[in-house]
UniProtKB/TrEMBL annotation:
PANTHER family hit by this protein: ABC TRANSPORTER PERMEASE PROTEIN, BRANCHED-CHAIN AMINO ACID TRANSPORT SYSTEM PERMEASE PROTEIN LIVH
GO biological process terms on file: amino acid transport
Record's protein name: Branched-chain amino acid transport system permease protein
Predominant place of localization: membrane
Membrane topology, as annotated: Multi-pass membrane protein
Protein keywords: Amino-acid transport, Cell membrane, Membrane, Transmembrane, Transmembrane helix, Transport
InterPro entries: ABC_transp_permease, BCAA_transport_permease
Taxonomic placement: Bacteria, Bacillati, Actinomycetota, Actinomycetes, Micrococcales
Subcellular location: Cell membrane
Organism field: Microbacterium immunditiarum
Length: 293
């Protein structure tokens, strides 16, 4: 029983890493209607920006806030100068552009800071506590609680604020939104800026656990995309719950399913995607989209 609880706790901790990135992907999709494959690279860039300020003896929390602000500006600039040129066209083209942007941002990080692992300080203290026979690190617990707070704030943004409703309207139908008087261009910039800022928070939460490298988010991005598909592209809660489920089921399958083991546990999220897409294509928490033709 103690082993089972430890596997669940470790799975929730790992799932929180996936959830941090999944929330940023959901935010971009809710704001612009796109799936941003560059989100992992932008999160890494933001973490490096915070790291630079920490090296200048700026307090960690201040460094992260500065990185969040800079990332917001970078996200808005990327939307205005790059993504906007492809908006209104084939969505697949814009997705390919975000993949190219991921490669570019990762290359820039590697060129400036190199590929050496760097230790990023944690917002949360070292040490752990014992819960039902399982050891829970304070760092993992802090990351878990931070993800819960961010998830609830995003859900409140999209469902309970005028800005959130405007962002959703623009992502669904930009032309009708413009005719209704909404500043579509400005809202798209805000959406990308918010997603980049959220990526900065995600990078700062994840970097202490993974160590800071240009490819830090590559594997997490795959799992985050799986969580978004399973949970629902339009549901922050769904993305987080799915990310936690992936982390837990991976750990359990690696130990209790002999033919999977640790070598094949990466197949778990893809099996879940296959099952969910057959039973509920919009995701566990997603909404069906009705298109008038």
């Amino acid at each position: 029983m103690g082993t089972f609880i430890q596997l669940v706790v470790d799975g929730l901790s790992t799932g929180s890493i996936y959830a941090a990135l999944a929330l940023a992907i959901v935010l971009v999709n809710q704001s612009t209607g796109l799936i941003n494959f560059a989100q992992g690279g932008l999160a890494v860039l933001s973490a490096y920006i915070a790291y630079v300020f920490v090296q200048w003896n700026v307090p960690l929390i201040v460094a992260i806030l500065i990185a969040v602000g800079i990332s917001f500006v970078i996200g808005g600039i990327i939307e205005r100068l790059l993504i906007r040129r492809f908006e209104g066209g084939d969505p697949d083209t814009a997705v390919v552009v975000t993949i190219g942007l991921l490669t570019l941002v990762t290359g820039i990080c590697a060129f400036i800071w190199g590929y050496n692992n760097r230790q990023f300080p944690s917002l949360f203290p070292l040490g752990g506590i014992n819960i039902l026979g399982a050891t829970v690190s304070l760092r993992s617990l802090g990351t878990f609680l931070s993800i819960v707070v961010i998830m609830l704030l995003l859900q409140a943004l999209f469902l309970g604020t005028k800005l959130g409703l405007a962002l959703r309207a623009v992502s669904i139908n930009p032309r009708s939104s413009a005719l209704s008087g909404l500043p579509v261009g400005r809202l798209l910039m805000v959406g990308w800026g918010l997603a980049a800022a959220l990526g900065a928070i995600a990078g700062s939460l994840v970097a202490p656990q993974l160590t800071l490298t240009p490819g830090m988010m590559d594997t997490a991005l795959v799992y985050a995309l799986a969580a978004v598909i399973i949970g629902g592209l339009n549901s922050p809660i769904g993305a987080v719950v799915a990310a936690w489920a992936i982390g837990v089921l991976e750990n359990l399958a690696a130990v209790y399913v002999p033919f999977i083991g640790y070598d094949l546990k990466i197949a778990v999220p893809f099996i879940l995607i296959f099952v969910i897409l057959i039973l509920r294509p919009q995701g566990l928490f997603g909404r069906k989209v009705v298109v008038r033709v």
